[in-house]
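Possible regression after last week's pipeline update?

I re-ran a chain I had predicted before the update to compare outputs. Posting the input and the new output here so someone can diff against the archived version. Not blocking, just want to make sure nothing changed silently.
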Amino acid sequence: MKRLVLTALVAALAATGAPAEQPSRKPHPFIPSIPDLSEEEEKKVDEAIDRFILYDTGKLRGDEGKQALRDFQKLGPESVPALIRGLNRAAAINHSCPVTVIAAKLQGIFGSTNDLKMLTYARDEVGAGVGRTVHAAVIQNLRFYCTTRRNTLVRAGVKPINPAEAGVKMLNTPDLVEEAGKQRGDRLRLVLSELGRRNGDNVINTLGICAAGYERENQQAARASLVATVGRLKPDDLKARLKDEKAEVRLAAVKVVSTRQLRWGSELIDRLDDEDANVRLWARETLIRLARQGVDYGPMPTATKQERELAVKRWREWWLKQGGR
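New output (post-update):
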């Protein structure tokens, strides 16, 4: 029943008016670190590379040629399959410039990637079907670079990218929020981990809901991501989260105050009478570290409401003596 309630709450958050984002993408089937472009997108990239080849061989001049160069320079890692196709097409041309330039661009991308599958794909596809060509040395050198780069990464302990994890990273935030209400187990932990890298009220609220779940591993993952997200808030927003309606969000905010070693005596004292025991405990421990010199006015974890109120009073008196308000 509790799981159904959590799912319904997260689904409700996903339905709220979140800012529009780019559509979610799927990872490339052979290169998980880049998105799988549509046929139309692939066609546009191919056309941009073909225009560059015309420019580089002197067949496209003037403003059109300059624009072709700019478009080529903008191409990023998502264009690797198309760049390899363009390299292979250019290899059939006796003019050396396009092959050399495209190969240099690809090598730059390969030198900055940790995607082992990208390097394997490139090693297999560079020069595929080209046959005899005056550019054989350039092609062979690029393939050799892919092999050595991959071997270096493997020796360094780099593991192949998990396609499921890559797919989660390519989801936009609204879709991630929606996934958090649908998934369980390992998939949910991937979603929660990625949410910890995002910002926004919907992210914090969703993580706060998931952190209150009953599955221990998922709860721990949600709490860690919640602290990470809340930890990026500006001071005023962080103070507001100390009074959030969700106990897990208040707890995360107190943890951030503790980690940052912020001298927020009044705000922490307010949380000593929190309805949530974990929030009270963390607020007390943070105040003890703030006070130093063995100062501890409680409350104990088992304290009654009256005892908590007394602890709050004593802490406030202490804080005033420190010059706090």
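Follow-up from reviewer: compared with the archived run. Residues 55 and 62 are 9 Å apart (CA to CA). Marking as no regression found.
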